[in-house]
Amino acid sequence: MAASKKVMTREEWEKKLTDVKIRKKDMNNMVMNFLVTEGFVDAAEKFMKESGTEHMDLATITDRIAVKDSVQSGNIEDAIEKVNDLNPEILDTNPKLFFHLQQQRLIELIRDGKIEEALEFAQEELAPRGEENQSFLEELERTISLLAFDNVSKCPAGELLDTSQRLKTASEVNAAILTSQSHEKDPKLPSLLKMLIWSQNQLDEKAAYPRINDLSKATLEDPAV
Fold first, then answer.
1. Which among 32, 42, 112, 33 is positioned nearest to 74, based on CA atoms?
2. What is the torsion angle, in degrees rounded to the nearest 10, for the CA atoms of residue 80, residue 163, residue 175 and residue 87?
């Protein structure tokens, strides 16, 4: 260890942490923000009652998760219908999102081997949008390329058939719904943990101190001296 580094004992470090005042209300709001954004309805309901955080309509979480589930199961028509039931303006004002949902529907048709239906759908629903937007056209061409390979694993766009593609589309829809409901589209907690890791890495260059190495346990570990 470099001699220039300051060594902080556990007692000194814990005292500094104790001196930092954090309101319980702010902590509760951050936890609630995570539960709502990630869609943990039951946990959010229990936490809201136990912590006394501001009441909110948890039914909106259930509706949003139902949309995500539809996308993740490949039922895109049902997902679009559910989004429109929630708020028609979500898709009316977000052509990129609507295109990606239609693209996912095309992918599902190809996955199911409905080639003729896939070609017809691409020509009638997606091609006109591609003519208006170059990036849409490129994504459409990439998706259609799946039909050119008997063995999809050899297709450069083969990952479109992976579960990760459904998750990507579901995440995009989820973010759009959250925004329409005046919620943040990303939870604050992961960002806070990233900031903690960054801060510790910066501090490591100047001092030896009890640090948190396992974020899941959040326990302080004494520095090696």
1. 112
2. 10
Alpha-carbon gap, residue 100 to 123, rounded angstroms: 15
Q: What is the pTM of this model?
A: 0.74
SS3 192: helix
Which of 54-58, 82-86, 90-94, 193-197 shows the lowest mean pLDDT across its residues? 54-58
SS3 of 208, please? Answer: strand
Chain-centre distance for alpha carbon 59: 20
In whole angstroms, what is the distance from residue 101 CA to residue 172 CA?
9
Residue with tokens 């998760």: 65
Identify the three-state secondary structure at position 54: coil
Cβ count within 10 A of residue 154? 9
